[in-house]
Design brief:
Elements (H helix, E strand, L loop, with lengths): L4 H8 L6 H9 L2 E5 L10 E5 L2 E7 L5 E5 L13 E2 L4 E2 L6 E2 L5 E3 L7 H6 L7 E5 L2 E5 L22 E8 L3 H8 L5 H4 L1 H8 L15 E7 L2 E10 L3 E10 L3 E4 L8 E10 L2 E9 L35 H5 L10 H12 L15 H18 L20 E6 L4 H6 L2
Antiparallel strand pairs: 1-10, 2-3, 3-4, 5-6, 6-7, 7-8, 9-10, 11-17, 12-13, 13-14, 14-15, 14-18, 15-16, 16-17
Amino acid sequence: MSMSKEDNELLTRVENGAPMGEMIRQHYWLPAVPSVKLEADGAPVRVRLLGGNYVAFRATDGSVGVLDEQCPHRKASLALARNEENGLRCLYHGWKFNVKGEVVEAPNHAGDQEQFCSHVRVNRYTAVDRGGIIWVWLGKGNSAPKFPDLPFVNLPSHQRSVTCVEVPTNWVQGVEATVDSSHVGVLHESTTQITAGGGNERMHMTKALAPKLEFEERPYGYRYAALRALPDDKIYARVNNFVMPWYGVICPPDTNGPTTVFFSTPVDDVTHRAWFVHFNPNRPLGMTVMSASPDVWNFPPLPPGSPNDNWGQNRDIMKRGHATGFPQHLGTEDFAMFLSQGSIHDRTDEQLCSADGAVVRVRQLLLKAAREFMAGKTPTLADSQELDYTKVKSVGGVLPAGSDWRSLADAA
């Protein structure tokens, strides 16, 4: 069933006080920048979130902070600031800010500096360095929401990699792709074959293109099984999880293999940042396409062209057997689809099918949370007593036909 224009606006808009943006701001932690981008006393990094402009920095003692980009004094950019002695010092007049956002020095004020600084109006945000990512809570009040302590967060750095890239489309297009199991065997047929080498269970997805989907509600969102019929009276079950408001936790390609968490966070209404966390809870991650990335702030690559040349699609390599003509990365294939949908996908004229159940559920959960927020309530999935992000586990495997996929998931 297609969506109304009003629901599509509520679902996608995050700027200028839009209810979805304000709900996310108050009730969820946002990933801001990969940890390795920030050096103690190094350059601040510009970050745009929910239509607002910020800077992230690492202080002399290693602590991290996220501040409004514009200095509250005369609105010069703190991206230009000197990072020194546990604070950012604005180049224009020397005002200095600690990681809490407090003004600690105003050298051009002639009166009592300490008293003056204590009365400067500033927005104070809570930032933490966890799981290879600098996270920020942009909400109001003193009680931050439960931190998304997903399975990669407490692993040592040699068991994970973090990359991300800014994509010029609305964030929900990215979130929907993370739970869309049926596109994997089509869009990612060639990249699956390349990365799998033709030798692991992921290849089943390129042969059985119409999975049967089954769902189970969870305190954080839902988990779902994509069941594909195989020869010899067997099924290939992929049990993945959607964690509000944007995490897709994808099962490993085989036992003890690496797992991936995809999430698409809103930069503004027409831009999102696509995050890829690749991790192995069982052993060192080693060299992978993700961990070998030379630029963690701009990877995977965007499609290399514009709409005028089909976003740089390589038809020559398609003649040689590549499924899409975007050989750069599976993320590049996804990004090409998002770009082709337009900056904000129009969901009012879709014709959905049986494979779209997980996408529909994502939309329903996000809209429900926004409406609960508009009614003055804490969204149910942000405040469940049973909410435990550490229990989010995704698994895959081959089972005898008729088996209950939950036995595979619960044994993990």
